[in-house]
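Table 4 source record.
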Amino acid sequence: MADSSFSYTSIFRGKTLMVVIPHEDDEINVAGSTIHGAILEGVHVICVFSTWGDDLYTPDIRRREAVKALKTLGVKEDDVIFLGYPDGGRGRGQKVGPIDRGVRRSIYVFA
């Protein structure tokens, strides 16, 4: 941010920022400006969604919407990870989905 003393790279000292997001649409509502600002300063951003956001909509719709929104902010599709937990937690008798392939890669990066 050339016209400000604020700098994402001074806050996020590493080259990668992992944003953990409860469910789809929270990336914009809660962290949209941080994600976009960090990307503008060259920080590699990975977004991890905890749930599918499937309480009212199908997981496919929510996933597509999230990827499209994050692409608008500058996040690459390969850097969008879905853990696959059901929206609303585990109390509905729904099985927890397998951990997305990208999570293992991200855990390795941050370990």
